[in-house]
Amino acid sequence: FRCVLGSCRLRNRTNAPSDALRKSVKAIRTEAQTAQPERPKTRTSATFALLRDADSALAAAQPKQAILLLERAVRIEPRNFELWIRLSRAHLASNNLTAATQHARKAIALADTAVDVSSQVAEAKAWLQYAQVLEYRGQKQEAASIRQRYSRQRG
Question: Which residue, among 91, 88, 90, has the nearest Cα to 111 in the 3D structure?
Fold first, then answer.
């Protein structure tokens, strides 16, 4: 890892982003472009509007804009685990693995307070996001273990 001003990036010996990380970021952007987002469980229309705009920003390969919008949504609904999952995904798209890890862990901590979703499903979604972050960090075995445990519970 190489950290500059709080931004850590995985590097290979040539000091260029690793091929695995580049492929992972490309996969996130492609997923954001092709996937129709499900309507998230939010309490306010303002939060939903911010999420919609953040999804559009990610689809347009603008993860920094998506992060700004999601951070605003989190300020409105700080206990919504799905917002933290989305924020983790946006940070993965911008290659900020430290923030992606922190936000995935926050989602796990908040999963038991989920609205309109069972706590078991919420926990599975949060852990699966954490597994995705671990895979991008190169911890494939731990990520596979988490996926095996929680894939059956995801709703």
Answer: 88
CB atoms within 10 A of CB 83: 29
Alpha carbon distance 22, 93 (integer Å):
10
Contacts of 135 (CB under 8 A, 6+ apart): 24, 143
Q: What is the C-alpha to C-alpha distance for residues 107 and 149, in angstroms, rounded to an integer? A: 17
Above 80 in pLDDT, residue 51?
A: yes
Q: What's the rounded Cα separation, in Å, for the pair 124 and 79?
A: 17
Could you tell me the pTM of the whole model? 0.71
The Cα–Cα gap between 70 and 76 comes to: 10
Q: How many CB atoms lie within 10 A of CB 141?
A: 9
State pLDDT tens for residues 8-45: 444 444 444 566 655 665 665 555 544 444 555 566 78
Rounded to an integer, what distance in angstroms lies between the CA atom of residue 53 and that of residue 48?
A: 9
Q: Are 117 and 84 in contact (CB under 8 A)?
A: no
Q: First CA to last CA across the chain, in angstroms?
A: 34
For residue 142, the 8-state DSSP code is H
